[in-house]
Structures are given as C-alpha cells and as structure tokens.
Design goal:
It is a single chain. The protein has a single domain (15-149), classed as Hcp1-like (Pnp Oxidase, Chain A). It is built from one helix and eight strands, in the order ββββαββββ. The chain has one helix at residues 77-86, and strands at residues 15-20, 23-28, 30-46, 52-71, 94-101, 107-123, 135-141, 144-149. Strands 1, 2, 3, 4, 5, 6, 7 and 8 form an eight-stranded antiparallel β-sheet that branches. Strand 1 (15-20) and strand 2 form a beta hairpin.
C-alpha cells in the first residue's frame, strides 16, 4: 500500500548515483526518467438485460526502465557491464541501488532495481576539436523497482 504523509515539499536532487553491492559505480547528473507500466485489457460483456458492459482489467506488465545521463568521463563501469550483457554473461543481471542525492551528496531517496542490467548505452555526437561535452545515456531495465525513503 502506498505511504501517505503530510510532507508535500517537492523532491530535488543534484546527482543520481548507481551502486552495486554497496559500492558507488557511476554518478549521473540527469535522471531522464523512471518508467513502470501495466497495460490494460478490455473485457466486454453484457448483463441480463443485454446492456453492454466495459471493464478494464490489469494486463501485461512491462519491465521498469531507468534512463540516466551524464557527461562522459573515464569511468567505464556501465560500458563494461553492458558488454557483459552483450556477451550473454548469465551473471550480468544484478540488484543495484539508484540514489537521488542532495547538494550534500547524501541520499534523499533510494530505489532498488532488482535483476537489473543496462539495456542500452549511448554516447552523443561530438565534433573533433570542439569543446562540447560528450553525453553518456544509459537505459537500465529491471524486473522490479522498489522505492524507499532514506
């Protein structure tokens, strides 16, 4: 059951940290989104008087996804993890945490991503000799996502 409370202050975060086994493996500056979806199925029937009844029922669940962005640096953990997935390593999916951190770098909220793996890793286009930052975008897919306050 969702928790309710009187704290209606909007949550802000200055960084988003992915950790595996309690070790921070990558820090991101932008959360592109967390997506969790349950499709609906329409059930159509009629009552005894012949009136058509429409019901929407729970349908197929789509696995949650998390999209993160950051300026590329020399930390290649996400690329290496993605490569393990591409090679078919059965140990690549793992449980990890996504921490939404405040200016003091302390977590404000933590999401646990169960059986997670990077589905897509992408680098933005860049021109040689220009001073533009290359953006790394990582899409992580998981079986379940559990949010918890810290």
């Amino acid at each position: 059951m969702p928790q309710t409370g009187s704290n209606s202050t909007p949550l802000t975060a200055t960084s988003f940290v992915v950790s595996v086994d309690g070790v921070d493996v990558a820090s991101f500056s932008e959360l592109g989104g967390i997506n969790s979806e349950v499709e609906h199925v329409e059930y159509i029937s009629s009552d005894k008087q012949g009136k058509i009844l429409h019901q929407r029922l729970y349908g197929k669940t789509n696995p949650p996804t998390v999209t993160l962005k950051r300026g590329m640096d020399t930390n290649n953990y996400m690329w290496a993890w993605h490569e393990r997935v591409r090679q078919g390593d059965p140990t690549a999916p793992t449980t990890c945490q996504l921490q939404l951190c405040g200016p003091d770098r302390k977590p404000k909220l933590t999401y646990t991503l169960e059986n997670a793996w990077p589905r897509k890793v992408e680098l933005s286009a860049a021109g040689a000799g220009k001073s533009e930052t290359i953006i790394e975008t990582v899409t992580i897919i998981c079986d379940d996502i559990i949010g918890q306050g810290t």
